[in-house]
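Dear Dr. K.,

Following up on our conversation at the group meeting, I've run the structure prediction for Rhomboid-like protein from Streptomyces hyaluromycini. I'm pasting the input sequence below exactly as I used it, so you can double-check it against your construct before we proceed with anything downstream. Let me know if the numbering doesn't match what you have in your notebook.
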Amino acid sequence: MGFFRGLGGKVWAYVRSAPGTYIWLAILFVTTVALHHMSQEFEQQFLRQRSTNIRELSDNPVRVLVASAMWIDGGHWLPYAFLYTVFHAPAERWLGTVRWLAVCVVAHVLATLISEGALLKGIHDGIAPHSAVNTLDIGVSYALAGVVAVLAYRIVTPWRYPYLAAVLLVYGLPLAESPAFTDLGHFVAALIGLGCYPLVRGRGKAWNPKETFAVLKG
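The predicted structure tokens came back this morning:
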């Protein structure tokens, strides 16, 4: 019992050290449960009204930019619990809640506007159908991409470069192979995260994997 009590205390301390991450994750849990209680037809209509598609951005930009970040398309919450713990929580603990949230907001908003702007141009040029103005576009992946990228500055060189290469490959390959507006959004969000370097200056010593490995070896 003592072991589990101690483990529970450490988990709770970790959660409290990244309040924004886990409050957001709790909201996503509630909204995901709500989606599971909707019929498929109602769910699509409901989400489309909270989507950052061209039509909704034209009519209610602020509302949908906020609302779209509170829902997960597909209804699978556990993968996001893992990703938030691996990326968002360390970033919030490192940057502080305000700076971490600034990275999330800038990546989410700018990547959305740029990708939807590209889609609008595609519609005007006849590359995409006019019905694409109602495309379902919700979720937290742009903010996540921005945070994943900004964490490159948390790692000392030369270890930073393999991590950065992996980030650019993960978000760049889909855009190169079969470009869609969401692929563009993810790649742009990662670039925006890298552009948030001014927010990371003075945030303490960068992590050295070599030191961690040495400690683990004893």
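Two things stood out to me. Residues 97-124 form the longest helix (28 residues). The mean pLDDT is 91.

Best regards,
J.T.
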